[in-house]
């Protein structure tokens, strides 16, 4: 019997999505943008102040909650991500990857433990929009 695999479905962690875009920012500038109050609002929404350290928790005005699991300045954030309407938290990883050209950085959003294919598609659209807004915030 042939199994039918759905795009983005993993064997053990539900659904996952990854999107990335190279921006005209150094890794330092990309980190500063993502963690600044203005930049944080681009990917989290309106949020309480965040201490960028492992174990810190956050809550947005829209009810999204999470906890920072890995904080590697200028490299990586890994955190739980749970909107109020979701039954379980997902895991979000943001990586800042050096690009071929100096002064450019690839920003990568990878989210796993999503519970449905529709949720995966919704988050794909969300992260693509976030990357577009980050790029517009810092045009070429």
Structural features, described:
The structure is a single chain. Strand 4 and strand 5 form a beta hairpin. The chain has helices spanning 27-35, 37-44, 117-137, and strands at residues 15-23, 57-59, 65-72, 76-81, 90-98, 105-114. A six-stranded antiparallel beta sheet has the order 1-6-5-4-3-2, covered by helices on one side. The protein is an alpha+beta fold. The mean pLDDT is 91. 27% of the residues lie in helices and 32% in strands. It is globular.
Architecture blueprint of SSEs:
Blueprint: E1 15-23, H1 27-35, H2 37-44, E2 57-59, E3 65-72, E4 76-81, E5 90-98, E6 105-114, H3 117-137
Antiparallel strand pairs: 1-6, 2-3, 3-4, 4-5, 5-6
The order of strands across the largest sheet is 1-6-5-4-3-2
Number of helices: 3
- Helix share of residues? 25-40%
Radius of gyration, CA atoms, in whole angstroms: 15 Å
Annotation, overall tally of beta strands: 6
Shape: globular
- How much is the average pLDDT? 91
The secondary structure category is alpha+beta
- This entry's quaternary arrangement is single chain
| End-to-end gap | 51 Å
User: Would you list the SSEs in sequence order as H and E?
Assistant: EHHEEEEEH
In this structure, how is the largest beta sheet organized?
A: 6 strands, antiparallel
**Percent of residues in beta strands:** 25-35%
Low-confidence stretches: none
